[in-house]
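Q: What changes when S-adenosyl-L-homocysteine is included in the input?
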Amino acid sequence: MTYKRIYLKRGKEESLQRFHPWVFSGAIHRIEDGIEEGDLVSVFSASGDHIGNGHYQIGSISVRILDFSDRAIDESFFVERLTQALNMRRALNLMRPDNNAFRLVHGEGDFLPGLVIDIYGDTAVVQAHSPGMHFARTIIANALTSLDGIAVKNVYYKSETTLPYKANLDPQNDYIIGSFTTNVAMENGLKFHVDWLKGQKTGFFVDQRENRSLLEHYSQGRTVLNMFCYTGGFSFYAMRGGAKLVHSVDSSAKAIQLTTDNVELNFPGDSRHKAFAEDAFKYLDEMKSDYDLIILDPPAFAKHKSALKNALIGYRKLNAKAFEKIKPGGILFTFSCSQAVSKEQFRLAVFSAAAMSRRKIRILHQLTQPSDHPINIYHPEGEYLKGLVLYVE
Ligand code: SAH
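A: The predicted holo structure follows.
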């Protein structure tokens, strides 16, 4: 199937021939009349070879290629891609009686650029990051509920903050199929409320699941500070791991309420946990040196390359505070989820912070995003989560 055509400048097809899914605006020679934002388009090289079909968008990334052939991008296309995504999650053993929360679609990582889908029990939360995916939302929802091997009953569409604001699409967060049933989901046997209606992203950060499990193994008998706790994920893993005490801190009062509710859901009446609505830097400045397991999982300090320098300073300052205060023999889990910050840059920021503290520090683990947030090998930009586990003498 050929859609309206976009022709590239000579030689600009090279990265696409290596299956990188983005066409940058500077690579385009000519756009056929009548193409509008969000339309399906066919991309051709200067010499007239068909390269692939994808969604057109106004901006520096002009086309996100969905398929490097001339097949139609219709409901059967989405059923096929979603089935492949689901088969992979099954192979990862993420669909179990004690685990019903996972990412089903991770954009380019699942060959569906512009689309994110998280599953919480029988509800799917769908996020469009491109106008094309916004227009496809109903066929995506239908495809989701038709999949074999998973019973998706409710599809909640949540793209008010993820679509380009200039596209003027006015997306309304709402159910496309079904309605609210329960919002309690399960991760590795721990329960949590997911607030997809008002919470950040799709309501829960499924990307820290494996790192939380690792933390659980280090928690026995420790005094834990979970900084930037959001819904408290790391806190209840630490409690299950036998922590002596867990303090959760977030600047958002809403997050502190969610954390308190989630701890109560798993460990009712457990006095080991306390939560504080406080700014991270203020808390770290004023706290005593009582913690021997600290988690730093801040929001992305650099959403774009332009913010890189300040972001690196931010990571350095934050980690320096933790190195200054953590007890001897302490363990620090420190993360960056900024896509614009590379693994090497993050490590350098943490290294600088370590040097400032003059303490003996060793790297125990180098962490990344979990397997349900796969990286398309042709699209290295898909790597975003970085973490280090450090032992501080
Ligand atoms: N660790 C969490 C995810 C963290 S998201 C998890 O496992 O789910 C980042 C969190 O940092 C958000 O909840 C946000 O409210 C909080 N935050 C942002 N700026 C902050 C600041 N200056 N001090 C404390 N918390 C902050």
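Observations recorded in class: The pocket of S-adenosyl-L-homocysteine is lined by residues 205, 208, 228-231, 233-234, 250-252, 255, 279-280, 297-299 (CB under 6 Å).
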